[in-house]
Amino acid sequence: MNTARVLALTMGLTLCSSALALDLTEHEQAGKRLYREGVSSSDAQLLARVGASGMSVPASVLPCASCHGTDGRGRAEGGVKPPSLDWQRLALGQGQRQANGRSYPAYSEGTLARAIQHGVDPAGNRLDAAMPRFELTLADQRNLTAYLKRLSDERDPGVEESVLRLGTLLPGSGPLADAGHVVRAVIEDGLAQLNEQGGIHGRRLELVVLDPGNDTASASQALNRLVDEQQVFALISPLAPMLDEQLVTALEQHDVPLVGSTPRSGGSAQIFDPLPGLPTQLLSLAEHARNALGVPADGLRVVYAGAEQAALAEQVRERLQQQGWATGPVQAFAGQAVDGQGVVFVGRAPAFAELANALQASGREPYLLAASSQVAGAVAQLPAHWSQRVFLAYPYVPDDWTEHGLATLSGVQRRQGLDPRQASLQVNTLCALRLLTEALKQIGRDASREQLVAALEGLHDVSTGLTPALGFGPGRRQGMAGAHVVAVALPGPRFTSVAPYRPLPDMP
Ligand code: HEC
User: Fold this and answer.
1) Which end of the chain is more exposed for a tag (fewer CB within 10 A), N or C?
2) Whose CA is closest to atom 34 on ligand 1?
3) Residue 160: predicted pLDDT
């Protein structure tokens, strides 16, 4: 039996951003294949002469990208370094350029071809033998040059030589300012620790925080600035609940990944929520009602309070239906008692208490099922009538916390002077940071948003020490496919975990 403390709850974190998909011409495409794979646009095999002896090998064994990087940024390791092939650096503007102790004026298309084929720079210096000499036809050379001019456009924003930029939206004033402060402190603390250890793949992680203001228009504007002007690579744990659909649209338009909890979690390929969304949590409660409480398929009702909860309630009803429940239509709560052996509630704490009162006054005692994040504040005040009849969903309980997880959490609380009572928001943010940085480590130095999404999808069984193991999958965008079920004993309240987290069947 596991006793759970009440965890003050999780808030809707939201985010977005974007990248441009490049339209390459046919020649540029051919150049890209040559650059990345060492293959010609004709059937001929391309050869590269390597080393002091000039031995010939197929260029496919030594494509440009293998040394200069798919991003063309060159490599920092080794003695004679493959320089950045940024067209701006190579060919545009006046003045001398430097690489490996050579000094030379801007490249032209002609001198570039000479460097690649004969190993001589525009000043006539011989390139080190570490740079192979490639035998290219006129057509291949033209394609390659065309692609090199576009190469730097192909990089996703926010990935620079020595910096990788993340962004978030956190309110500096208003009702969410406090939460914004907590999220910011946790992210900055985590990034500072990573940076102290050298960052990720030689890049320091930088965080850009913009204030979404307090309406949809200002939040949209802040989001666009984050993506377009600030050029952030990905978003982490934004707090901008007013951005609902707009967030999804903006993220998808720009292919910007977001790791964090948002009102649209599960509803966009770009949004990776470390924790289960509300409908998923409520589904775990329904499973418990079916398996342990014996509530029949037509015995559940879905009740919501507040117009802003209507869409969420409808989502819950649909998901329940997919699991074989016949709940009837969702019902708006306006002080009335409802029938049914179990009531799935979507709404805030005060309305939850009102519903309990209305039911009790009419002599009913159904099971009340709700997310702790929404109603936990109301349960202490409920009369003993409701003892063992209220079941709350928790993404994690203190039993999930390992020594290492606790040390991480108390470490950030101590360093940043954070209130342990806001642990749930801190845990949420820590999980988002853990998953994002894990995926960034996996994709290596040639970081692209596409690779990041693929790496996030590939995360399985990531232990946070604070939650059950987290993971995603193709089409799966919530780190947990369910929640713990906790029973409430009254008066007290005392919380008892009655069904530990178990992934729900067929969960997206
Ligand atoms: C085996 C590793 C390797 C491969 C493969 C390779 N390069 Fe290089 N490249 C180098 C190194 C090392 C240098 C630096 C040589 C020097 O500075 O003396 C270099 C230099 C260059 C330069 C000169 C840049 C400057 O600033 O002067 C150009 C241009 C270049 N490479 C283009 C290419 C292209 C295009 C390809 C593919 C067709 C390619 N390289 C394949 C290692 C490589």
Assistant:
1) N
2) 64
3) 85
